[in-house]
Specification:
Length: 156
Amino acid sequence: MAITQAVCTSFKQELLQGIHNFTSGSGGGTTTTTGSGNAFKIALYTSSASLGASTTAYSNTNESSGTGYSAGGEALTNVTPTTSSTTALTDFSDVTWTSSSVTARGAVIYNSSTAAGSANRAVLVLNFGSDKSSSSGDFTITFPTADSSSAIIRIA
């Protein structure tokens, strides 16, 4: 099993189909036509997971478990789409599971909205490079600077 960091191939096609809506941030949008953004989450996975560019949807197979972590992961907040003359990008606030005891090798960001056709579709896979753990402490994912060379999701 392996976790390979990648933007999911299905996500690239789904962007062209208008399935994912980052407008106005995350917060429970239920359609891509209302102007409300879809809700996005991040789920943690063990080293037994097989994830990469071919991942198409959130799955609980080999998802991390432990105190302070709930299946399905954590909601991403402050979803901020930005454009410049050469790049479109989006950013999220950092995520912390407080007082948790959990181990993860990687994560999947996915569209957790309930809209038909978009529910649980994978966006990207993160590989932490090695197992990361917390023991009755904070498990935090810090997203990179939201700019044209570092943003977690960027189209140049």
